[in-house]
Amino acid sequence: MTKTADKNSIHIEGARHHNLKDLTLDIPRDELVVVCGPSGSGKSTLAFDIVYAEGQRRYVESLSAYARQFLPQMDKPDVDKVEGLSPAISLEQQTATRNPRSTVGTVTEIYDFLRVFFARLGKFYCPKCGKPIEAQTTDEIVNTILGMETGTKFMLLAPLVEHQKGTHKDLFAKLKKDGFVRVRIGGTMYTLDEVPELEKHKKHTIDLVVDRLVLKDGIKKRLGDSVELALGLGDERLIVSVVGGDTPGDIVMSTLSTCPSCKISMPRLSPQLFSFNSPQGACPTCNGIGSVEYFEPDLISPNKGLTLNNGGVIPWKNATRQRQYGPKLKKLGEHHGFTMDTPLEQFSDEAWDALFYGCPQSNWQGVVPILEYGQLQSGVWDHWSARFQQSRPCPDCEGARLKPEALAVRVGDKNMHEFASMSIQRALDWLNALDFSGADTLISEPLLKELTHRLGFMVNVGLEYLSLGRNMGTLSGGEAQRIRLASQLGSGLVGVTYVLDEPSIGLHPRDNQRLLDTLRSLQARGNTVLVVEHDEPTIREADHVIEIGPSSGWLGGEIVFQGPVDKLLKADSLTGKYLRGDMFIAPPETRRTAKDAVTIRQVETNNLKNLDVEIPLGVMTCVTGVSGSGKSSLVVDSMYKHLLLHRGQKANNPGKIGGIDGLDKIEKVISIDQSPIGRTPRSNPATYTKIFDEIRKIFAGSKEARKRGYQPGRFSFNVKGGRCEACKGDGQIRVEMHFLPDVYVTCEACKGKRYNSQTLEVEYKGKNIADVLAMTVRQAREFFANHPPLMRKLDVLAQVGLEYLQLGQPATTLSGGEAQRIKISRELGKRSLPGALYILDEPTTGLHMHEVGKLIRVLHALVDKNATVIVIEHNTDVIMASDHVLDLGPGGGEHGGQIVASGTPEDIIANPDSVTGKFLT
């Protein structure tokens, strides 16, 4: 008899999805529940593929068939029963979006409220002279005039001609015929009978006197008629010319938003004017993206040691281009002192500019204009030439994304771009300091409430250093997840199951408590918060802990522990041992010292404050500091991107630096992140690490394969020949179910083995190629013990803790931590790595405390092979294991961007200014 869930728990029975081993468990509702365990043990499978996916799938199935075809369909997990589910919301550790239009403001929807805020409360200021531009109704103009001091003498004038040449005789004749008496020409008053002959070639300004008045009781009707007449004649503008009194002079009034001095007209204020995704608001040059592509000479000619004859300009390496442009280049060389065999590095600055941007004297267009013209002519050329292009801020809007008219609107002293460029904390302080009067008070109240609430939620999750204009593609997965978490805080939902994937990633230990308070506030409202996490403070804060293990892959998938934290501290589980201190990661006994270094000078990328930074080579360096202090700006935007440029590789929006010294000591630079090793099931650990190449050679060398004439390509499931053609080597066939999730059926022809029967007949030591792909790394090491080249690669996979992985396991089923360690293993497989620089950003993401120790050993193994490793990390064990530490801060955003401490971990601990040092003791 099966158990039925009570109303206080989510009951799961018979969970066999992925590596879960027929689990049955109850997850308490309305509590903070943490799921922990080694990487690949089944944590995400339980939390996301069963709890979230099943809750989402059931909700979608409750909708009509018509509605379902427009919604993403969740696969049905392999589980017997799930009861007690509530609507589920997933906040995953997603790879940052590549959409250049997606910003922090748009994702949180704060930008939508901001557009209404500026449209309803903003004032136009002339983009040319900076003076305020006021648009008024006829009644407002009349009331403004009536508000002047009683007894004031003034004239109402209609501006007819402004700075135009001519005698204007016809105009004066018409005005006289219409009954008008006086005009003002260039500031001098004349009757129409006395108007002098105007010079034909001189510009004149002519204003018509509509009425002359003295402000007193009873003139409102006459004033109103005169104002309407003046506005009609003056194209919706009039001039109030005060005669005598304390402040004589002209006051320009208009029913249009037009600058009285510069005559620049402004559009009607609307929320669309402030949208960079709308033609009404987007900068016409960059179409609202904020950056433009341009041809970069360093990408066109990365090797300055080459000449024009031997391929110095990459697009013209072929003989056809040489014949086409050769004569013109020779003529250019005669003018600027070079030949076709002169290395580019010997070109003078003038010759370099002439080569790339043209020389009229030599009738040479220039490499860049020729490429730009070719790009306009052909879409194929456009795709090919993209490799020679870089991104840079738009020259017109300077990255603001909006039209000049939108940027001319201010609330207080800020326009839209200036507000979106402030840190969230500063933006919140600025909004709280605003003071409105009159009708603006009523309009501003609901808008300020929404804006301050949402910005406050961003501060609560530790993102006060970000700006609303920050592109989402520049954020870490943890930052992106916390942004979505802040959005959920604002929704105020109750009775929901929130499933989060390591929300602490990217957070400095100093800021952890704020995140925990946020999770507690979600739970206190009556929600279930299910968190997949390795962070020790988060685990200790939980109401209930579920540990999956005991190991990873097929060695995991079991419940090792379930219960409150106080019982976990006594449990004989891997996490329990680390929390008790029975197991720990010991720092190395000695620290390496560097002989060489790379020096980056005058770094001003993002919030970095003109730093001169020395990065030691041949050691493991950890760059740390509070969130938003400038770690990625320094390592990725400033160092990594400029290293790529130096090597002639593409790097969009490299940081602002003065220069880099010591680049000659770096042979190659590799960034290792947690992105998948492949986006399809065809990619797997064997293919990515080149292990499969060796295996296919072994099978091709077997007696049966030689007899049949099979080459290594016969044993590939990606090409015709040996693969099963019924499923094209996938092993399964996708059946489209329209408004239901697609169904994957095991291929009947090959029974899921991917190969045709002839290929499977070839065996090595009693196993065919499909059997080998089903082996784990551990099994393969035993099976191929007599093949040293293959064993070396298999040993490295085992060294990084992945001996449980199947060789043919689809890349789409690997966790981020597993993908990253597979990438590291490929590099470790190389015998020596002199001059290699490895950059890792938050490599402990997805790793259990026990696996962090393995990662540290692997990173030190890279350094032992003469490589340099730079790690951006908050994990205290990784920091303590480093040879050198750069601690940035002291705060985030505008309060960061400085080097607080530098040296060994012991030096950081001893520095009283280092926030990080306080957590290392």
From TrEMBL:
The entry's keywords: ATP-binding, Cytoplasm, DNA damage, DNA excision, DNA repair, DNA-binding, Excision nuclease, Metal-binding, Nucleotide-binding, Repeat, Zinc, Zinc-finger
**Tree of life domain:** Bacteria
Q: Where in the cell is it found?
A: Cytoplasm
The ABC transporter domain extends over 592-921
Q: InterPro entries of this UniProt entry?
A: ABC_transporter-like_ATP-bd (IPR003439), ABC_transporter-like_CS (IPR017871), ATP_grasp_subdomain_1 (IPR013815), P-loop_NTPase (IPR027417), UvrA (IPR004602), UvrA_DNA-bd (IPR041552), UvrA_inter (IPR041102)
For this protein, the record's PANTHER family field holds: UVRABC SYSTEM PROTEIN A
Record-stated family: Belongs to the ABC transporter superfamily. UvrA family.
Q: What is this protein called?
A: UvrABC system protein A
This protein's species is: Pseudodesulfovibrio sediminis
Coding gene? uvrA
